[in-house]
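Protocol step 4 of 6: record predicted structures for both targets in the notebook before any analysis. Target 1:
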Amino acid sequence: MSTVTIQRTEDPGRTLGVVGLVLAIVFPIAGLVVSLVARNRSREAGFANGLAKAGVIVSIVIIAASLLISFAIIALGVAITGDPTLMAP
């Protein structure tokens, strides 16, 4: 009796890569985490996961843009009112 070995040629992080990319647009922090997990799983299996890499990049860009816009809005509020304690009760 001979044994047959079946090798799995499917990327184990592909589905997570797609989920990570979608989450990167909707919930960037969750998208970053899922995309990094997908990228690591693919790399361990010897695959290059472009979707996971795109999810990481999109997440980082959206997070950075959100932070910049938030700081700009706060700076604009301080510049207009001249009061740095806008949020104080």
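Target 2:
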Amino acid sequence: MEATLGVRTAERANDALSAAQVVVWAVKPQVLREAVLSALPYLGKPLHVSIAAGVVLKTSRSGRAHAVLLV
């Protein structure tokens, strides 16, 4: 995916997220909360796109305003 589409992928949250303009949450619905919470320390203010079925992303309780797109 990285070579074909020119996007970065990661299995775990890391410093690269701080520069992200868009974050795609492509995880199973039951692990989305844990994934988001682990990423919060690294996030700037990207657009969030979730493809986790039946899950709604909300503004984080940390006070950071994030634009959210639900798909």
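Step 5 preliminary note on target 2. Residues 59-63 have pLDDT under 50 and may be disordered. DSSP finds two helices and three strands in the chain.
Proceed to step 6 after PI sign-off.
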